[in-house]
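Lecture 7 notes: from sequence to structure.

We start with a single chain of 164 residues. Read the sequence below before looking at the structure.
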Amino acid sequence: MKTLRQIYAKLSASRLRLMVLAASGSATLLAVAYVFQALGYVPCQLCWWQRYPHMLAVAVIIVALVWRPSAQLAWVGALAALATALIGIYHTGVEQKWWPGPDTCTAGTLGEQSAQDLLNQLMATPMVRCDEVAWSLMGISMASMNAIASFALMAIWIAAARRK
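Now the structure, written as tokens:
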């Protein structure tokens, strides 16, 4: 078992400090997502996809604390942050109708479907839609906020990877 002095000495290392900061950002974004979920904002499929890389980032810091804070682990954290940022951009585009989203969580076009096909589509459609903004602040959706924050976290992970 490590003493508090050993843990503090490890945390004072520059790379680890940055890794803890970045992973704490991911943990905070996850916590906020779960708070919104508890408040009744049910996540869509793309919202869930954005959470998984943040979970990986939290796992990375656990490994770094148990093992050692290597540059390779920091690069894994940077890739996780990039992945969730890109998913956030994709989700923003789906919300803004810039491009289509997954068939499982977006409204499709009616086209030349029969009444039975429309009914089947409605019955198979989940209640939570990826192409609708559930909540926004000053016109910025949660997906967009996640993308912005994740790019900032990626920069911190990259700084950690470059430190000795």
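The longest strand covers residues 136-137. Keep this in mind for problem set 3.
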